[in-house]
Design a protein that fits this description.
Layout: H1 2-45, H2 48-54, E1 55-62, E2 68-70, H3 71-80, E3 83-98, E4 101-114, E5 117-118, E6 121-132, E7 135-145
Parallel strand pairs: 1-7
Antiparallel strand pairs: 1-2, 3-4, 4-5, 4-6, 6-7
């Protein structure tokens, strides 16, 4: 009888741990999607403090044309008016969590100008996030323009 009770207890613990891990993963997914959408809002509203908070100090971005940019360059470009975002919407999110790291992919649709050039359209984005000092920070981003058919 003790063996059955022990086996049932172990099964309940394993099952419970699995549910807890799934719930935590879903919570992380929602948190990262919220941060991604917050990034869109920050770009439109010129909220540099938000960007400064969640972009890691060693953040590196890669644009559709292969241009690399740092956190400082990303924020400076938005502050200077070289990059003007009037609308930004993301959807089709896929989030993969690996402990304190995560990869988020999504479709980004925007209306924006970069140095006077219309760069509006749809893009595929891959962001790499790491939990640093207890909060999620984006350490890398790659953006590719979706070709219009």
């Amino acid at each position: 009888m003790k063996r059955i009770a022990i086996a049932v207890s172990v099964a309940v613990l394993v099952f419970g741990a699995g549910i807890l891990a799934q719930t935590q993963s879903e919570s992380v997914e929602q948190e990262l999607i919220k941060l991604e959408n917050g990034w869109n809002d920050a770009a439109v509203k010129h909220d540099w403090a938000f960007l400064d908070q969640f972009l890691a100090d060693d953040y590196i971005g890669t644009d559709s044309d292969g241009t690399l940019y740092t956190k400082a360059q990303e924020i400076a470009g938005l502050k200077s008016g070289d990059s003007v975002v009037t609308s930004a919407v993301s959807d089709d999110f896929k989030v993969r969590v690996y402990g304190d790291a995560a990869v988020v992919t999504y479709r980004y649709t925007s209306k924006e100008l970069a140095k006077g050039k219309d760069t509006s359209g749809q893009h595929r984005v891959t962001d790499t996030w790491v939990k640093l000092a207890g909060r999620w920070q984006c350490v890398a981003e790659h953006v590719s323009k979706i070709a219009q058919k």
